[in-house]
Write a structure and sequence with these properties.
It is built from twelve helices and ten strands.
């Protein structure tokens, strides 16, 4: 029986699995370390190779026993990051058995089972993807945290820090500012906002630390006007991504829309409610579908198909002890 490795790597966490050709999960792991090829250009390759070796060790197999490796990675088109990763894979003698794909494509494989529909992924980053009737991928957003992708977890955290910095003088005079200010400095066990900012800036995982502040924005948006304004700006822009993509895909012009979701932020009911409100001007009925299994399986399935021309059915994975999605 052949074995396949799959990985789903974003800016804040990474998930990896080893499955067999019947879809059974043999090993699985999640680490709270990002493997975005641009953000973590120098350290992502080592993080990825460590995961591969750890999973192989867990089930007492050699890396040579794996037939193909699939990596669904954020910023996979970043040339320098790809080159460094392939050097590491070549060191392990598995470069020729490896495929690199966008993390959104891996998620699409296990979420949009019929290979059609709009998938919105919002975690640290944000991207909306879909396939047209010719089978071509079309995407909106997903340009990266440094390209002002509005609505992502990183963007929510960044906006929170900006608003607190601009309004720090009001911390003892405005209840909304005071509430958010104290939540941020408590999170980082700091004495003031400057200390918190320094902690974030000096951490190698600073991107994910900023993104982690999105939880403060979302959870307090129902009783804090500053948090609400950040959330509403985010979801208005994300709604525009969806509307633009829906138009580009030339799907039917019904007032009903089914959206597929992936990522920790979009799984928030508060975030989705705000997004649905923004979409309600264009669509009457909005429904959401989420996959329980990690996009790491999508990467493994695509590796099996690419390297061995073997199609592992997603439904078989559900029968086992699978790794859950974010």
């Amino acid at each position: 029986m052949k074995l396949y490795f799959g990985l789903d790597g974003g800016a804040s966490s990474t998930r990896a699995v080893i499955i067999d050709s019947q879809g059974n999960t043999l090993a699985k792991q999640k680490v709270n370390l990002g493997t975005n090829l641009k953000v973590y250009e120098d350290i992502a390759p080592k993080r990825i190779s460590d995961l591969i070796l750890n999973l192989c060790s867990e089930i007492s197999i050699s890396i040579e026993d794996i037939s193909a490796f699939g990596y669904g990675l954020a910023a996979v088109s970043y040339d320098n990051g790809r080159e460094l990763l392939f050097k590491e894979l070549d060191r392990l003698n598995i470069a020729d058995k490896s495929i690199l794909i966008n993390d959104a494509e891996a998620a699409y494989k296990v979420t949009c089972i019929d290979d059609i529909g709009i998938l919105l992924t919002i975690g640290t980053g944000v991207i909306a993807v879909g396939k047209n009737y010719s089978g071509e991928f079309i995407r909106v957003a997903g340009k990266g945290h440094d390209k002002s992708d509005v609505g992502s977890g990183y963007w929510l955290g960044k906006e929170l820090l900006l608003k607190l910095s601009f309004n720090e003088a009001l911390v003892n005079h405005d209840n909304d500012v005071n509430q958010l200010y104290n939540l941020v400095i408590d999170k980082f066990n700091s004495n003031n906002l400057n200390d918190a900012l320094e902690i974030i800036a000096n951490d190698e995982n600073s991107l994910s630390l900023k993104a982690s502040l999105a939880k403060i924005v979302i959870e307090n948006s129902e009783n804090n006007d500053i948090a609400l304004s950040i959330l509403q700006e985010a979801t208005v822009n994300v709604a525009d991504y969806i509307i633009d993509l829906h138009s580009m895909l030339d799907y039917n012009h019904s007032k009903d829309i089914m959206l597929f979701g992936n990522g920790s932020i979009i799984k928030s009911t508060i975030y989705r409610k705000s997004l649905n409100d923004s979409l309600s001007f264009n669509f009457k009925n909005i429904s959401w579908v989420f996959s329980d299994i990690s996009p790491a399986y999508g990467a493994a399935i695509m590796a099996a198909l690419s390297k061995d021309n073997y199609n592992i059915q997603v439904k078989k994975i559900f029968k086992g002890d699978y790794l859950v999605s974010a």
